[in-house]
Amino acid sequence: MAKYFDVHPDNPQPRSIAQVADSVRSGALIAYPTDSCYALGCRLGSRDGIDRIRSIRNLDNRHHFTLVCQDFAQLGQFVQIDNDVFRAIKASTPGSYTFILPATREVPRMLQHPKKKTVGVRIPDHVVTQALLAELGEPLLSSTLLLPDEEEPMTQGWEIKDRLDHVVDAVIDSGDCGTEPTTVVDFSGGEAEIVRRGAGDTTRFE
Q1: I need a surface site. Which of 31, 83, 162, 167 has the fewest CB within 10 A?
Q2: Which UniProt keywords apply (predicted)?
Q3: Average pLDDT of 111-126?
């Protein structure tokens, strides 16, 4: 059974956040809220976590996983960014965007797109997520919690606990965080290409 953490959306309880971070370090797969919608997350480099996310979401090996980072300094360890791209991303973070960029050697090969050697990165604007990332001290490997054959992600932590109780290890519930996923912008070719229009405003990338 998944552990259930009822966390305050504006003042997350440090003890609960520390417990979730400890479980992630120990290999747990968690469901957690972001500024766009709920996501599945595990420790960077956890092959078991990746396999479980693929199984839950029925994903193939072409799926772009996302590294959810605490800040720009952390993000810069995992992707290659030139000056123009740096400015565009810096102006849009934190926020509801995922950026696809060339991966550095810090990114395990199993997380990179098999042909392009790219990875998705984002910096969320969500108090609870930021608290968890600060406690964890490293990015969360993540994917939107969108189940196969469903058009929208689940929005309630208790519902996620009820439906995924035996396939995730912990659920953070801090209230409804919406159903619209991030806007995805691919910078791997040097120019901004909008791959998915979502919660983030696309104006600056058009």
Answers
A1: 83
A2: Nucleotidyltransferase, Transferase
A3: 89
